[in-house]
Amino acid sequence: MVLCPVIRKLLHKRVVLASASPRRQEILRQAGLRFEVVPSRFKEMLPKALFPSPPAYAVETAKQKALEVARRMHQKDLRAPDVVIGADTIVAVGGLILEKPVDKQDAYSMLSRLSGKEHSVFTGVAIVHCCSRDGRLDTDVSEFYEETRVRFSELSEDLLWEYIDSGEPMDKAGGYGIQALGGMLVEQVHGDFLNVVGFPLNRFCKKLAELYYPSGREDPRPAQSHQGRGGRDEDGGERTQAAGPEEAVSSRTGHSPPPFPTGLLELVDSFKASKALFTACKLKVFDLLKDGAPLKAVDVAGKLGASACGTGRLLDACVALGFLQKTDRGYSNTETANLHLTSDGAYSLRGLVLHHSDHPWDLSARPESAGRDGVDPHDGALGERTGPPCQASCAHSEETRLGLLRAMHSLAKLTARHVATAFDLSRFGSACDLGGCTGALAYVLAREYPRLRVTVFDLPEVLQHVAGFQPDGPRTEQVSFLPGDFFEDSLPEADLYVVSRILRDWPDGKVHELLSRVARACKPGGGLLLVDVAAGPEAEAEAEGLRRRAGGERSAAVYAHLLRRLGFADVRAAAPSATPTLHRACARPASPRAHPAGLFPPVSLIRVGQTASPREELGTAGSCKCGAP
Ligand SMILES: Cc1cn([C@@H]2O[C@H](COP(=O)(O)OP(=O)(O)OP(=O)(O)O)[C@@H](O)[C@H]2O)c(=O)[nH]c1=O
């Protein structure tokens, strides 16, 4: 997510961070900026005595770091990036500038100098706009610095050496890291904390706003005043003082142009990020870069049998997306890529990526024809049928099916504990996980509730692969597998039915049919644990028409309503604090008269998974519970 509108202005530019500092990369990535990392080779050895003040030194160093990268990139490709960002953090105490310690003794003398005193941390930042014209590089440097004052406690010798022996001081200015163990040394901070960590994000955003919205409005529309404006136009070029043609027309007609549709254009463009991910997964780029030494683009291209230029662009896109890191030695996987994007990662989602790359988009892309023609895409009228991916996978090649099962297994492993412990299920003796796939959730339920026997009920085509999937924890006889189709066959008897991450893939008719079958199978005193990705209330209204036909996220309130109609009582919803609005989904107990005879099943409705924002981490969004009186 991008909170700062001006950061969005950079999303369509090629931005390079000229820094090897992982902290800077993290701060800017968290802010939603997309960038490549090209560490600067500039030697930080400017003669300090020549500078009038410590921050002047930091700013000049930041500038030289950024310019070195801009020049090197320009020389290499004859094409510089649009923007290069450089930064330099120093600690200043008693007129002395402290950078990174060269050894433990140096760290000791720095930290003992800081002990019991206040010092200043300055980070100089340079934003270099580049333009390659006729083989020549033009640069335009904007620079600033931020100061934060930090006071240390008195540090004992023991504490000092223990801290130094932790190794933390060695790559940090002043010999400490306020964001980690070094935080224990700090008594007071005046100013921007992130500035101490290595990048003054707040000032950076303000500086960008100055550059891109020189009239002072955080609005990318051209300013109305024709006077005194400098600044940067949409392409990063310097704006002239004269009004542009659009503004001239505006002032003549008295109409101002509508707000620039940044969000819309971002959406139009955002498929490129997915495409880069899809392509890299298809080409097995992350498998190639797993574990081994970093590889240069040309080597990756050689192994893939692809063009060096195209591969370089793809790899850079993956760096910008945070899946690869780039250093002088070449490209390597980030931890996310190793875990989720390699074929055999512990929580590999590669199968899911490939599935989304090849399959469901066709369906989602055509609901308008469904609406026009009165066709339900799920009835096969568009030549496809969805349902849970692991069931839909039965129609796919063996490799695709296995990849999908792997992805479903990883997703279930990521969320299973949260699902199993969101409610106290200890009073149930038996459970049936409908469409429980590889049993990832079933084994966690069994581990959390040692008395519980869990039957995983799924299609034979799915269950034949179960042996190849390792659950989280040991296999146990509490869990058994039964082949069957939950739409066709009678449901196994159980005290508790589990319907997890299935419903969103079915249209309303199918959801109603499945839940009705569960309601009929439910014994008095039995229950239903419903787990799904759910839409927030605002998404609910907007998505209603589309979702109703084509399946997709339903809000907890929609599920609760449906369950009450089916005779489930006291539907309650629980949500993690990250999505407090979901608490509103708690349902009042239904009137017993509303229940079909003999059925007063308590219901648990749990929502786990993504929110409407696809970038949010799985399992961090809401959960909601519905329970019986
Ligand atoms: C005071 C403090 C500093 N740092 C780190 O110190 C390095 C400064 O060195 P630099 O020369 O500015 O940067 P670098 O790491 O050499 O990277 P580069 O930009 O390539 O020169 C940066 O890492 C900062 O995060 C912390 O992580 N926490 C703190 O509390």
From TrEMBL:
One of its GO terms (biological process) is methylation. This is Acetylserotonin O-methyltransferase like. GO terms for cellular component: cytosol. The keyword Manganese does not apply. InterPro entries: COMT-like, COMT_C, COMT_dimerisation, ITPase-like_fam, Maf-like, SAM-dependent_MTases_sf, WH-like_DNA-bd_sf, WH_DNA-bd_sf. It comes from Equus caballus (Horse). Coiled coil: none annotated. PROSITE patterns: SAM_OMT_II (PS51683). Residues 394-568 form the O-methyltransferase C-terminal domain. Residues 369-382 have a biased composition (Basic and acidic residues). It comes from the Eukaryota. Keywords: Hydrolase, Methyltransferase, S-adenosyl-L-methionine, Transferase. The keyword Methyltransferase applies. NCBIfam families: maf (TIGR00172). Residues 216-258, 365-390 are annotated as: Disordered.
